[in-house]
Amino acid sequence: MTPQPSNDVGRYETIDTCNSTWIFDTSEHRFVRLPRNQAHPDAAAMVPPSRWEPYDSVVVDPVSGAFLVRLNPSGSRILRSMIHRDPCPRCSSESAAPLTIELETIRASSDDADQSN
Fold it and tell me: Is the pTM higher than 0.70?
């Protein structure tokens, strides 16, 4: 996890995924997920207490970028996600380009077929 800048140094840690920022309050063992475009250094202080969820532990695989959030001590309730990295194979525009080109080709082919009828 990456330290979250705040007045409470070391209390908050964050993990960015492709569409969310997970903020972990390590003192209170609680977390919240925010859209990445809403996360900023003071975001944790502005989250209402009712939005925070308790957690037991976080396990990060530094090689794959996968992480698990254990919600209870037994590990029977977990959340899984992947850390966003630059360049990101899951959300980068470079990885989406071939799919976009393919969809545009399919669309153009169907338009041509419609016009020939």
Answer: no
